[in-house]
Amino acid sequence: MNWTSENYYFTKLEKKELSEFIHFYLGTTREFFHLDNAPDEEYSRQYENLIREDLLFFDKSIYYVMRDTKKHAIQASIRITYWDRETTLPIQQLFSIKKENLLIAEIDHFWHIGRFIISQKITGQRISILKKMLFDAFFPPFYLGNGLVIAECDKKLVRTLFNLGIPSYQLGVPIIYLYSETLPIYIKTTWLNSFIEKNKLAQYCFGNTIDAHKIFDIAKKIPPYKNDKDRDAN
Length: 234
Description:
It is built from nine helices and eight strands. It is α+β, with helices and mostly antiparallel strands.
């Protein structure tokens, strides 16, 4: 997938930019639901929760962001995180899902995808931007093979993923989270084959392959899950 624009460019987020990133994510979410005048204390609480989570996951993640060329402000984002099977994922807390229910047998590596949002200010090329960001985030676990991608996903986005050729498995009943109906899902990397093949070009995948190796290097430094034999028994 070869995407270019005179008005926007894609880059990766640096740790020092996390505060800017969380403000963009929360502000864009509230704009979508017309909640610009929400109480300050609620915003502060949400900000603290999200920044705490992102600081926890940052060193095991790649954040892809799209910025505009004039002010270099973030206009879209997505995050892919390697899960060490020890750190508590948001899906476990939000939906009371046990770790054992996520450790699917015969899966070699586990991931969490999140912070996927596109500013309402983007009026053109939204589908192209959406496909590119999903491609960027899904490619590393797909490239490494036989993985599982876990997410808390807006119900409408789940339908969009399906229409793009990305099926998912629903782990529980939906809840309202950050103002939208949100589902707990997982996606096996084998289910991504059609989407990846349909959207890739040789010259485009080079950077994604580098990112895949980066995450693989991160994964190698993390000790194996101590109860692997229990997973295999499931």
